[in-house]
């Protein structure tokens, strides 16, 4: 077959856009029974719906951009940072109920910082202390998130 050319697509970006759209749609479907409310009187479904809508919009943008560009091969993939971030986030999710916000946030920030090879321990310590205090003030005290602050 002469004259036939195969168009190589940017499949990783197409997949990423599709996954974002799918997750956003799944979130909207999962929260379909929650009351949306308004910006002045937010219901339980307001924030999840807005975030899922933004996820769908960003996914659509990534997908459209991916369909318009040619495939770009990339060299060797380094999965270590991805695995470290998954462990950090999963640890936060599993520890937050029993060990509280402070301990689980310290875990998240310290373990998550290991994904960057250029991290310095002094910077990690300072940012962990500041972000943990800021997070506790905003989420636990300001927004009233129902999570223990400490394990005791």
In words, what does this structure look like?
The protein is mostly helical. It has two domains: 11-67; 80-142, no CATH class. It contains four helices and no strands. Helix 1 (11-30) packs antiparallel against helix 2 (46-67) and helix 3 (80-113) crosses helix 4. The longest helix is centred in the middle third of the chain and has 34 residues, at 80-113.
Low-pLDDT stretches are none
Order of helices and strands: HHHH
Secondary structure class reads: mainly alpha
- Evaluate the radius of gyration: 21 Å
**Average pLDDT, to the nearest integer?**
85
Largest sheet: none
Number of strands: 0
- Number of DSSP helical runs: 4
Head-to-tail CA distance between termini:
73 Å
Q: What is the percent of helical residues? A: 55-70%
**Beta-strand content:** under 5%
What overall form do the CA principal axes indicate? flat
Could you give the topology of this structure?
Blueprint: H1 11-30, H2 46-67, H3 80-113, H4 121-142
Task: List key phrases describing it.
4 helices; 152 residues; mainly alpha; 64% helix
């Amino acid at each position: 077959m002469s004259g036939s050319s195969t168009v190589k697509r940017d499949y990783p970006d197409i997949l990423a856009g599709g996954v974002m759209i799918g997750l956003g749609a799944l979130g909207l479907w999962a929260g379909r029974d929650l009351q949306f409310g308004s910006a002045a009187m937010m219901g339980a479904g307001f924030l999840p719906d807005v975030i899922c809508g933004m996820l769908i919009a960003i996914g659509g943008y990534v997908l459209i951009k991916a369909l318009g560009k040619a495939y770009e091969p990339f060299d060797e993939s380094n999965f270590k940072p991805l695995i470290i971030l998954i462990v950090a986030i999963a640890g936060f999710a599993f520890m937050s109920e029993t060990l509280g916000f402070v301990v689980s946030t310290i875990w998240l920030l310290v373990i998550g910082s290991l994904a960057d090879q250029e991290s310095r321990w002094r910077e990690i310590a300072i940012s962990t202390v500041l972000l943990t205090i800021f997070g506790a003030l905003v989420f636990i005290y300001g927004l009233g998130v129902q999570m223990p602050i400490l394990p005791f």
